[in-house]
Design brief:
451 residues, alpha/beta, Rossmann fold, pyruvate-formate lyase- activating enzyme, OB fold (Dihydrolipoamide Acetyltransferase, E2P), 3 domains, five-stranded parallel beta sheet, five-stranded mixed β-barrel, binds iron/sulfur cluster
Amino acid sequence: MIIPKPAPAPEPARKISFVSLGCPKALVDSERIVTRLRAEGYELARRHDGADVVIVNTCGFLDSAQAESLQAIAAALRDNGKVIVTGCMGAEPEKITAQFPNVLAVTGPQRYEDVLNAVHRAAPPRHDPFIDLLPPEGIKLTPRHYAYLKISEGCNNRCSFCIIPRLRGDLVSRPAADVLREAERLVAAGVKELLVISQDTSAYGLDIKYAASRWKEREVSARFLDLAAALGELGVWVRLHYVYPYPHVDAVIPLMAEGKVLPYLDVPFQHAAPAVLRRMRRPAAQEKTLERIRAWRSICPDLTLRSTFIVGFPGETEGDFSFLLDWLDEAALDRVGCFRYEPVQGAAANDLAEAVPEEVKEERWRRFMQRQQAISARRIKRHVGTRQQVIIDEAGPRPDGWAKGRTGGDAPEIDGTVHVTSRRPLRVGELATVKIDRADAYDLYGTVVGY
Ligand code: SF4
């Protein structure tokens, strides 16, 4: 009798520890790298020690972000020793290798192949046909019910405080059909909310001359409006980030009023005073933004506007700053973030005008926050007594059916939340109709009245 030899025990899969820093655009890069690695049989490790290699996806936007990235690299070297660096800081590898000569490789942003090659060298893949089975939508690092959808890379603008075009290059738009097919795969996998991102969403398609591509037996052109309308057909929430107030953006507002895409616009205004905007070299700086906001709201009264601002930009005078505060009163934005200007090495802004002293920046930042908080608090109160569709992000095992979610006016991670109580337990990703009972400065509180 021949006794068959037992099959050799499968080798354990290689493990990768992954650190993803920076903005949602960097998160999408991380998702792509992780998807490819998982397809090749690698597993994700929870900790650096015990992993075969660590990948750090860095952010180079501000000096403080660069410092955080360098700290993450130092920690990975300390806890593991085998470290591959990618992302925005990888565009200037000498900054990393000067401090950490023993990193295994440094690759620039979106250099997925280079990252994978470096991983193969450090920890060759072990083939396992079971691990190789991958969900078609890829691996997402966000919770299952929402996903970032990157529609382009790079940027054609040259804002004087920003080095992203130097790090990531000029605008490269994806064909509309490509974006739509990715969106369909995500929706088929259970995603309920698509967050459209890029460096300048309103510039989408400019580089490819708005070329049409085939989707669902028809041609869809690579235009901001056409893409938004097509995404709106997928039956999930569609949220638009990083939109500049160009005239052509007006055309998307009726889609919001009709409920095709969320009545939400994330417009990074950064300032309002014409002299500062000119020095910042902001896109759409010449547009009459207050008039535009008024017109948008007259078409879609439910519109939520989010923005970010920089105070203490070089050469900002007290007059410029007061102009900004008055503008805030008029604009009555819903959600606002404010940063004190921080010089970024290599940015043109540093040499444009005299730096604003730190204590002045600090004082302006406080005045700005105070003024805007009052505006935001007033805006959020308008929801009290209304019924809102809420997407559930967190649901607890508590007997009162407590859960946390967001209205269409709240983007995940940056805006407010709705605390809800419900007669029956809610599921993450579920949409519920909530009667809003009260509001505080940032959040809403309500009761579920419909499932
Ligand atoms: S729009 Fe301006 S701030 Fe945004 S990535 Fe482009 S250059 Fe940078």
